[in-house]
Amino acid sequence: MTIYGESRPMDMVVDDVKEDSYLFDAFPDELVVKMQKEDLLLHSHDWVIKTDTYAESQPLRDFFNIIATDNEKGEEFVVAVEGKRYPVSGVMFHPETQLRHIIGKRDGSLLGKVNDEVTDAINFYFSEHVRIQAAKTMDTHKFADPEFGERMEWLNTNMGFTRAGAASYLVSFGF
């Protein structure tokens, strides 16, 4: 299933996003509601994880909670997950707006992407989530594999993730 260049809403799976999830902790309630009702979340992917696949995979079920889903042509797929025991989360859409110039229309916006103050707020709160989780990781999680732990410590230190806060954030580094 391909969903490319289309902004869509998401369906929350958890009953109370503030109580049952840490992914959207920092988000104002009204912004979460907009993400559920308006076409704000840009999908640009050639594949998805169907909820059926998640249900059939014991390792996925043991590690992740599904927070939000979406439907395409009658098939439900996973849109947001978070780790049950680790500060790991992920979304199957692109909240960032800084890359408006990469695949653009003449006005500089991404094809299919709504670019306005609301999407800028979504981007801000996702980056704040990443910063908060990185700080938690440095303070509370040790890695069994010393080499991996050293790489993560280097990454957190060199990307600006510190116990005092972060001057920048990281979406993907390729590790």
Overview features:
single chain; 175 residues; alpha+beta; Rossmann fold; 4-stranded antiparallel beta sheet; two-stranded antiparallel ribbon; 8 strands; globular; disordered C terminus
Structural class: alpha+beta
Which bin fits the share of residues in helices?
25-40%
Task: State the total count of DSSP E strands.
Answer: 8
Task: Give the termini separation.
Answer: 26 Å
What is the residue-mean pLDDT, rounded to a whole number?
74
Element-level helix/strand string: EEHHEHHEEEHHEE
Could you name the CATH topology? Rossmann fold
The major beta sheet can be summarized as: 4 strands, antiparallel
Tertiary shape? globular
The Cα radius of gyration reads: 17 Å
What is the percentage of strand-forming residues? 15-25%
CATH superfamily: Class I glutamine amidotransferase (GATase) domain
Strand order of the largest sheet: 2-4-5-6
